[in-house]
Write a structure and sequence with these properties.
The complex is a heterodimer of chains A (307) and B (286). Chain A contains 13 helices and no strands. Chain A is mostly helical and 307 residues long. Chain B is globular and about 75 Å long. The chains are: A mainly alpha (307), B mainly alpha (286). Chain B: Keywords: Cell membrane, Membrane, Sugar transport, Transmembrane, Transmembrane helix, Transport.
């Protein structure tokens, strides 16, 4: 833009108009995918409509049932089971990924021969298509597969555990796959944070006789607090959506043993086809997540201001 | 800093362990892709890590060749699903990058669209599962079900937040002096954007596009819900690749999995230094 002295009303108007035009397509797409669908979802959620009705969704009012879907979901034990399982997966996987990622990141803080190659290899799992990763672990956990093969080799026994058809072990297998795929993300983000820790501070602390543990807690940890929060927030939110790997590995089974919230919604959508009810569940989840998002955004904005 | 021998030994031991755990699943699938049918489900003492009789049969099989009398030829080959995944991901990336880059520039330079950061962050955080009912109804109404262009449209919208945030951080960092010089020369604002800014941003544009492409290529759920037969994507096709007639087609699926896994891994390594920026929405840079 021209030096402020020569700024004219015309340039101002030109810029405002161009800015509006440039942001317009995105605004339209947001309206198209968020605002209109949410209103539709709200409407359908107040009815008993299903695609099997043979009438268009706009005529769903003929099947109006008020808030029945919302009261139904309170007593839906399968839904609560799925929600609980999602939280179990989250509570095991996110801390595991975090600790493993942090451990690796600490090892990669300074230079050593082979660092770049090892770094690239360790990041690979997060780039593998999740559905393909699901298939990899499906093969690994077959009763005649390599996991049992390795266990047999280590124990000297003939191990033939049917991982994916045991309710508890299936959940364990699914969590192992998630940890395999997403530990690299924690490693990547945490390492980016740790690299920013000023070396002279660490050196000074070392000269003053601080042990490695002390340096870690007093210098590194506070410096990477923002990074920690961001990394954890991303994984918490993503693990709530867990679907691809899990669905390929177990399809939510055996029974409902690995049925998480996304798998549950998928099944009710495509098999039971009670869309009015699904819309109600989806809306409740969206509202809950929106509140969390706004809180997290504030946190991130505050953190960004400091950095 | 700390370079004691025990520490170095410990470091290499831990890294070796991490590398092994990282690579075993990938290598197992890669090795399976080259195993003949007799070795697919070998187990116990017969468990083979490396194919004893390596073959390209699995690749030939998924593209429709009769490779063994043991399993019937596929009536639907992998060619069309690969094409579907490619078209949907490429055009989805184009949509996301065009809209996202324009909006990012509008916000970065002129402060337009102040609502976009929050709106797009929410869009990125929503589980796709939770908005799929209206999307399925809308897509059916618009005749977009089971088409690569219908998928491209939803992919473009789902990955728009990433394109927007990546490009916004790049525009924010770009020095404004060159643009200002061109303005003094008398170029219009829009011409400056098209003729000066965008060409200067070629590298960031390419990295962002690759990042967005990886995300689009990785989708499974949306393809599962919005395609049925003609234009199923690779993961959807792969999951349907076994039947009661054939049983698990381990080798064939592994071959297809390998084909699906290679492009994002290569692109991901190429844009390694921008991964943190993309994943954290620019809150962090490497």
């Amino acid at each position: 833009m021209p030096p402020s002295g020569t700024r004219t009303v015309a340039t101002d108007r030109e810029e405002r108009r161009l800015g509006f035009r440039l942001t317009l397509p995105t605004q339209v797409l947001i309206l198209f995918i968020a605002v209109f669908p949410l209103l539709m979802q709200l409407y359908i959620s107040l009815t008993d409509w299903s695609p099997l009705e043979g009438t268009g969704w706009w005529r769903a009012y003929e099947l109006w049932n008020g808030f029945a879907n919302y009261t139904d979901l309170l007593g839906d034990s399968r839904l609560w089971g799925a929600l609980w399982r999602t939280f179990v997966v989250m509570l095991v996987c996110v801390p595991a990924e975090f600790l493993l990622g942090l451990g690796l990141a600490v090892l990669f803080m300074d230079d050593f021969p082979g660092k770049r190659v090892f770094y690239s290899i360790l990041l690979m799992p997060m780039m593998v298509v999740p559905a393909v990763a699901g298939y990899m672990f499906f093969m690994l956990f077959q009763s005649g597969g390599p996991v049992n093969g390795i266990l047999s080799g280590l124990t000297g026994l003939d191990v033939t555990i049917a991982w994916l058809s045991d309710p508890t072990l299936a959940l364990v297998a699914v969590m192992i796959a998630d940890i395999w795929q997403w530990t690299p993300l924690m490693f990547l983000i945490l390492l980016a944070g740790l690299v920013g820790v000023p070396e002279d501070q660490l050196k000074a602390a070392t000269l003053l006789g601080a042990s490695w543990g002390q340096r870690f807690v007093t210098i590194m940890l506070p410096r990477i607090r923002t990074v920690l929060i961001i990394a954890l927030a991303i994984r918490v939110i993503e693990s709530f959506k867990i679907f691809d790997t899990l669905y390929i590995m177990t399809g939510g089974g055996p029974g409902v043993a690995t049925e998480t919230i996304s798998v549950y919604i998928y099944k009710v959508t495509t098999q039971d086809l009670i869309w009015g009810y699904v819309a109600a569940i989806a809306l409740v989840i969206l509202i809950a997540l929106s509140v969390l998002t706004v809180l997290a955004m504030k946190r991130m904005a505050a953190a960004g201001g400091r950095a | 800093m700390r370079r004691s021998l025990p520490f170095e030994l410990f470091r290499y031991a831990m890294i070796a362990l991490a590398l092994a755990l990282t690579l075993i699943p990938i290598l197992w699938m890669a090795s399976m892709a080259f195993k003949p049918i007799a070795e697919w489900s070998a187990s116990g003492a017969d468990l083979t890590w490396w194919p004893k009789a390596p073959t390209l049969d699995n690749f030939r099989y998924i593209f429709g060749e009769q490779t063994t009398a043991l399993i019937a030829t596929l009536d639907r080959t992998a060619t069309k699903p690969i094409l579907a995944s490619l078209l949907a991901a490429v055009f989805g990336t184009l949509i996301a990058m065009s809209a996202g880059t324009a909006a990012a520039y509008g916000l970065s330079r002129f402060g337009s669209g102040q609502n976009l950061p929050l709106a797009l962050t929410q869009l990125r955080l929503f589980p796709p599962m939770a908005v799929m009912i209206p999307v399925m109804i809308m897509w059916a109404f618009l005749g977009l079900i089971d088409s690569w262009w219908g998928l491209a449209l939803i992919y473009g919208i789902v990955t728009l937040p990433f394109a927007f945030w990546l490009m916004k951080t790049f525009f924010d960092e770009m020095p404004k002096e060159i643009e200002e010089a061109a303005l003094v020369e008398g170029c219009s604002r829009f011409r400056v954007f098209m003729k000066i800014t965008l060409p200067m941003m070629r590298a960031p544009l390419a990295s962002s596009a690759m990042f967005v492409f990886i995300l689009n290529w990785s989708d499974y759920l949306i393809g599962l819900l919005l395609t049925t037969k003609e234009w199923v994507t690779i993961p959807v096709y792969m999951a349907s690749l076994s039947s009661s007639m054939t049983g698990q087609l381990y080798g064939a699926k592994a071959a297809l999995g390998l084909i699906a896994a290679i492009p994002p891994v290569i692109l991901g390594i190429a844009i390694q230094k921008h991964l943190v920026r993309g994943l954290t929405f620019g809150a962090l840079k490497q």
